[in-house]
Amino acid sequence: MAVWATAGASVVAFMGIGLVDPILPSIARGLHASNSQVSLLFTSYFLITAIAMLVTGFVSSRIGGRKTLLAGLALVVVFAALSGMSGSVGELVGFRAGWGLGNALFVSTSLAVIVGAAHPTGASRSDSARGGGGRRAGGGAAAILLYESALGLGMACGPLLGAVLGDMKWRYPFFGTAALMAIGFLAITVFLKEQPKPARKTALLDPVKALGHGGLASAAASAFFYNYAFFTVLAFTPFVLNMSPYKSGGVFFAWGVLLAVFSVIVAPRLQHRFGSLKVLGGSLLLLAVDLLVLGYGNHITAVVCTVASGAFIGLNNTVFTELALGLSDVPRPVASAGYNFVRWFAAAAAPFLAPKIEEWTDIHIPFVVAALAAVTGAGIVAVRRRALTLPAEEPEPLRAMEDGVTAFAG
């Protein structure tokens, strides 16, 4: 029950990322705001998430996983409810920042808690041995698969929840998320026992120090440009499609399904056949082409390319996070925090810059800039191939999946 309670809350946590996608135009109309102002909902959320990467390990290594989860859930409940009561776009942007802090605390801790709750003895030994790094212990595969399913389900269903509730009123998706997270808070309070604390406490600057490793720094730099392209799709495309909440929610649901399938099933198979760096470089270039066609195509083409981008994003997420966790010898939560500290800044920048670039130029140029960012990411992979080569030629498929989920969440 502890595992299921945490996994269920994880679904809702990941839903919060794409929740506002279908209702961005509705929010703009309801609060009399411009597209660039409404896009700040993503910017504030991910800016705080990036900064929080320096805090989550520090907090969880001191108060324990259960208390960290509950603190994150409580913050999401409060700030999601406040978001629904916002009277101006400025208030909504501020409340989304608080939501980002709560979500960062929750998702960066939940996988370790699920594995530990499923196999408490093995998880404890593993965490102690790696100073809290936490590889899967023995039979933790089922727990990891459950968490991966929660991630995919949340990313796919977030836009659907936003569409169904947002079609009635743009405020309702925020209240709905607050209610679901409150249920998750109660379930974890009742069913989850405290997990063993790691043997070594994480310092605030440990993630930054980890970036001194050339391979990890290269992966983070490439991922920074990739994430700019990723979140141009997620935050700017809804304005370009200009569809009803239901139709927009359907498009991003299909996008989320492709993202999950290619992340969990397709990426490990392609890596086994071609190698991680070839898959990553090729996927980044294909994403760049997709973005250019999206930006210059007609409406139907834009819909198709938006959905198709989920496949490339799924591949990139898995390979990038695998590299980030496998290149250095620091504990995995520390490596993950350092990597995400860099890449989430791009997730904060893209939603703000894309509408501004449109205002300065035209609707096509934001996608040109995003495509150039994806090409830049591929260029870093090509130039830094030696530094980005994993110690083992190719990771095991299950380990690849585990690492991908850990760093994406963290």
How is this structure best described in words?
Residues 121-141 and 393-410 have low confidence and may be disordered. This protein has one domain (2-409): MFS general substrate transporter like domains (Growth Hormone, Chain: A). Helix 4 packs antiparallel against helix 5 and helix 13 runs antiparallel to helix 14. The chain is an all-alpha fold and 410 residues long. 63% of the residues are buried. The chain is globular and about 55 Å long. Helix content is 82%, strand content 0%.
Features:
410 residues, Growth Hormone, Chain: A, 82% helix, 0% strand, globular, disordered C terminus
Number of strands: 0
The second-level CATH architecture is: Up-down Bundle
Structural class: mainly alpha
The low-pLDDT segments are: 121-141, 393-410
What's the overall geometry?
Answer: globular
Gyration radius, in Å: 20 Å
N- and C-termini, Cα separation: 23 Å
Overall pLDDT confidence = 82
Which range does the strand content fall in?
Answer: under 5%
CATH topology group? Growth Hormone, Chain: A
**Portion of residues within helices:** over 70%
Q: What is the name of the CATH class?
A: Mainly Alpha
Number of helices: 17
User: CATH superfamily, called what?
Assistant: MFS general substrate transporter like domains
Total tally of structural domains = 1
Biggest beta-sheet profile: none
**SSE string:** HHHHHHHHHHHHHHHHH
